[in-house]
Amino acid sequence: MLGNYIKLTIRSRRSNILGLMTLLLLSVGILSCKESNNKTENNTQERPKVVITFLPVYLFTKAVTGDVADVEILVPPGTDIHDYQATPDNVKAIATANVLVKNGLGLEAFLTETVKNAKNTKLVEIDASTSIKVINDISPVEETNEKDHKYEHTAGNPHVWLDPVFAKQQVINIRDGLITADPGNKTTYEANAAAYIQELDNLNNEFRRTLQKTPNCTFITFHDAFPYMAKRYNLKQMAVVEIPEDQLSPADVQNAINAVKKYKVKALFSEPGIDNKLLTSLSQDLQLTVYPLNSLENGETNPQYYFQAMKDNLKNLATGCK
Ligand SMILES: [Zn+2]
């Protein structure tokens, strides 16, 4: 009995030792886990995670960050930013981000609640439209009695990125915000921004040179996205609707007809890729050609896409205004 007891004690001592060793091994494991967690944190610090609300601001941010940051878009191209509803993935993306870049001017209506839900106290927010003077009026159209203007009395028309000069200001705002959030990559942000700004300056010169041949050209759009571009280059945009719709309403058509009757309208412009039968028959009735004009709310995610799309816009404006 006694022998058995002793054996048991030894055994239990042995298992105690085994237990201790297991504990030690576990601790080492936990420690090394901690270490690798620290490594991950350090990596995140080296490569900041930047989430951007939608395409134009994404293009500008990507141009400034180059390869030194992980960038992610919240509203995928092809989804309408104007009445966007946030997803749980958006909340997750913001929760784990270092920086959030938005266009501002009330365009990202979904954002306030989404940021609140993400509970990310370390998040740095960059408003790309800081210090840009907005156009508050809805572009002049011959109104019917529909009054559901979304930007009215809010922050003004948000489509500032379609004016290359304001686009430049947005790039500067994004650059400065990124430098504040991630000073370690200051030189990269400055160099990348300078190169992109140079291209924006060239684009602005090209717009000015080309469109000064057609001063006061009045055109109709089916998306109130071009008042800044029109103002910059001495054109007149008359927007029949604020946001592109799948189908024009009879009231939209009547607005267009009234505007054409009252003003010397040169051309109609609609978002590229929209095949609208009503618009085609309207253009036939009014004897005005419909040209594509890209608001850049949809398109490719390469920063150079901005210049490609804007040069197409310039070509179509010049042709339409001739
Ligand atoms: Zn828009």
How would you describe what is shown here?
By secondary structure, this protein is an alpha/beta fold. It is built from 10 helices and 8 strands. The chain has helices at residues 2-46, 55-65, 88-95, 111-118, 164-181, 186-211, 227-232, 250-262, 277-286, 305-321, and strands at residues 49-52, 70-73, 99-102, 124-127, 218-221, 236-239, 265-270, 290-292. Strands 2-1-3-4 form a 4-stranded parallel sheet, with helices on one face. It has a 4-stranded parallel sheet with strand order 6-5-7-8. Helix 9 links the parallel strand 7 (265-270) and strand 8. The protein starts with a helix and ends with a helix. The structure holds zinc ion.
What would the principal axes of the Cα set say about the shape? globular
Count, helices: 10
Strand content: 5-15%
CATH superfamily of the largest domain: Nitrogenase molybdenum iron protein domain
Overall mean pLDDT stands at 85
Total DSSP E strands: 8
**SSE string:** HEHEHEHEHHEHEHEHEH
Strand line-up across the major sheet = 2-1-3-4
| Whole-number count of domains | 2
Helix/sheet category: alpha/beta
- Cα(first) to Cα(last) distance is 111 Å
Q: Which ions and ligands are bound to the chains? A: zinc ion
Q: How does CATH name the architecture of the largest domain?
A: 3-Layer(aba) Sandwich
- Residue share in helix: 40-55%
Give unreliable regions as ranges.
Answer: 1-15, 17-44, 142-150
CATH fold description of the largest domain: Rossmann fold
User: What composes the largest sheet?
Assistant: 4 strands, parallel
Q: What is the highest CATH level, the class of the largest domain?
A: Alpha Beta
Global Rg = 28 Å
